[in-house]
Amino acid sequence: MKGKSIISARDFSREEFLHIIELAERFRKTRAGYVWAGVHFSQLLKGKSVALLFYEPSTRTVFSFKTAAESLGVWTSYIDYKSSYYGRDGMLQWDIDACIAFGSDAIVLRSPQDFAAEFAACSVKSLSELVGSPLIPVINAGDGKNEHPTQALTDLYTIMDEKGKIDGLNIGIFGDLLYGRTVHSLSYALSNFDVKVYFVSDDALRMPPERLKELNSLGLKYEEAPISELQKLISHLDVGYATRIQKERFSFPEEYEKAKNRYVIDNEMMQHAGKDFLLLHPLPRVSEITLEVDSDSRAAYFRQAANSLPVRQALLSLVLGAIK
Ligand code: NCD
């Protein structure tokens, strides 16, 4: 995977998913004691530099990418959405990409625009041909309502860690399936496994038809259900993946007002789920999971958030070529 840009969860094969999961597990288990081929963990990527371009607010994702990179000896530089010139005064993103490509070994990019990571990877490639800048990988850390592939890696790793397997599970995905980029990437990732997925949402927030068509052709077994059936469905599920309604992606505030607070997972709802049920959420949440659920051992979203660190350590080691 050395030099590979990570734009979509479709960029990974089943074998690559399993390889990253296995590597993340080794990072997590050995923590700071990790030694790879005689090289200590903290020196693994020494001398490398990674640009963290976050043109949209982020807490967990930027923190875990920064911590993952620096724990491996990487020098990071960070641009946030307030201090950057992104989209201002007609400045060309192309010019920004060129400057960054000259000084970095990889770009981690979050943007409010769909397909921003794909665009950046294309401009990095063209610039390397035109002006000789290095051909560095671009990692998509969330592009608009499109995808969030490294979150999907964390989600798969958490399912494997908690359930000991992915194949054979019934997985419910709830909430905003239209604008939620994590659920798009997770669905593509799950299409590599023998699972049954239940897409549970309001009619207005269903998984877009073109994505359903694609998931179908990728061989994913799925069913759609209205959010009003969540209580009935939850007892059949091994895993539930809840998401917040993505307020910032609605064009009209009235639409968001109609779409919000349409489901809640509280202790009462959890009583309908099995004893081995696993509740995930990419976070942040708004009101879709009540605070009382946090102390239920089946609620794994904080463990899931913690797992993003070893997963991103594994991914950076692979993409920057320290580990095969
Ligand atoms: C998600 C995102 O940014 O898409 N958060 C995250 O990266 N953990 C989910 C969200 O914002 O709802």
* Beta-strand share of residues: 15-25%
Summarize model confidence as the mean pLDDT.
Answer: 91
Structural class: alpha/beta
Which ligands does the model contain, each kind named once?
N-carbamoyl-L-aspartate
With strands numbered from the N-terminus, the spatial order across the biggest sheet is: 9-8-7-10-11
| Multimerization status | single chain
Terminal Cα span: 7 Å
Q: Number of helix segments? A: 11
Report the count of strand segments.
11
Task: Please sum up the structure shown.
The chain is 39% helix and 16% strand.
Entry keywords:
324 residues, alpha/beta, five-stranded parallel β-sheet, 11 strands, binds N-carbamoyl-L-aspartate, 39% helix
Overview of this structure, please?
- With 324 residues, the protein is an alpha/beta fold.
- The chain contains eleven helices and eleven strands.
- Helix 1 crosses helix 5, helix 2 crosses helix 11 and helix 3 packs across helix 4.
- The radius of gyration is 20 Å and the shape is globular.
- The model has no long low-confidence stretch (mean pLDDT 91).
- It binds N-carbamoyl-L-aspartate.
- N-carbamoyl-L-aspartate (NCD) binds next to helix 2 and helix 6.
